[in-house]
Amino acid sequence: xxxxxxxxxxxxxxxxxxxxxxxxxxxxxxxxxxxxxxxxxxxxxxxxxxxxxxxxxxxxxxxxxxxxxxxxxxxxxxxxxxxxxxxxxxxxxxxxxxxxxxxxxxxxxxxxxxxxxxxxxxxxxxxxxxxxxxxxxxxxxxxxxxxxxxxxxxxxxxxxxxxxxxxxxxxxxxxxxxxxxxxxxxxxx
Length: 189
Known about the structure:
By secondary structure, the protein is α+β, with helices and mostly antiparallel strands. It has one domain (about 40-185). The protein is about 25% helix and about 40% strand. The chain contains three helices and ten strands, in the order αβαβββββαββββ. The protein has helices at about 1-25, 50-65, 125-135; strands at about 40-50, 75, 80-90, 90-105, 110-120, 120-125, 145, 150-155, 165-175, 180-185.
């Protein structure tokens, strides 16, 4: 009888171990903490550029935007931001040059201030010329001229380049030939 009791005791211990192992194996595991997926609208890169590189991009962008307009103009970066156009006066083409000091404003946009306006060799009144340009120049929708405050506002965050690329300026130092901006490339996910 001793062996029967030992057998049933060993069977009960084995059954208890199997049941504990089954409960331990099949119990629900704690939830895994996963980091939240970032909700970015694209990949953003910081770009360091020189004036020559941006001059090429600006030229191509404006050539596309003003290709069917009779009044054409050129924009380039040097010690200041320059805008020039040839205006017909008394049957002759006279060069109008407007120069500005760029300033980075909220949202990575640019404000062009301290204008100097030359028609040929004559210095012209700023308010009058900016009013004329506001009415007659084929400006992109992202550029707003404010003649009363003598400034031009360029809303870069509204400009979408090829494939939806977006630009925001971080720093402009024309004297040091250092321009820093972010380039955001939209992603599909």
